[in-house]
Amino acid sequence: MANNPMQANILATLQGIQTALGRRNNTLLPLFRGDTQDPIEWLDDFERAATADQYDEEYKFQIIGGYLQGSPATWFLQETDANAQHKIIRWTPTNTGEENTSFTIQFEAKFRTLILISKWCMELERKTQGPGEVVTEYAKAIRKLIKCVDSGRNWTEEQKIHSFTKGLKTDLSYALWPLLALKDNSTIDMAIKLAQ
Q: Whole-prediction pTM value?
């Protein structure tokens, strides 16, 4: 559309201004310090806040360094350095083969440690529906733990259903299994809905 470089520059500048004006800064973005902080939950919180403020992938990548502190900030500086083996240059992969240069993938690989995974597995194994705890709250906790343990989204629906039903109150769990057995292709969503 632009016939000369000056028109192209003006158009690009106007598009940049329009994008910037669409962003809001109403939501407080969380900080990540590492240590025992849950990286999966932090990334979810960051994404939710960034979405509310209408940040696109490029802008999230531009600002993320300001929300990392301590060793995570040092890691990010090293991984975005020009000499880094797999220099991080984007928020998430958009094409196959971009996983090594994606912040979200590399962040999880670095901070979703074996110690945290073991902790989440034990929590998931031991989680039971507490007295007075409604199914909705129990299901929310189970979903969160499954997401932490299975970040690659490789679990089958049967595994998710088992994790959900094993900790339900006994009478509810026993009542639920026959209903799930009668349905083809049962899902955790279906199990939660039936339990409610």
A: 0.72
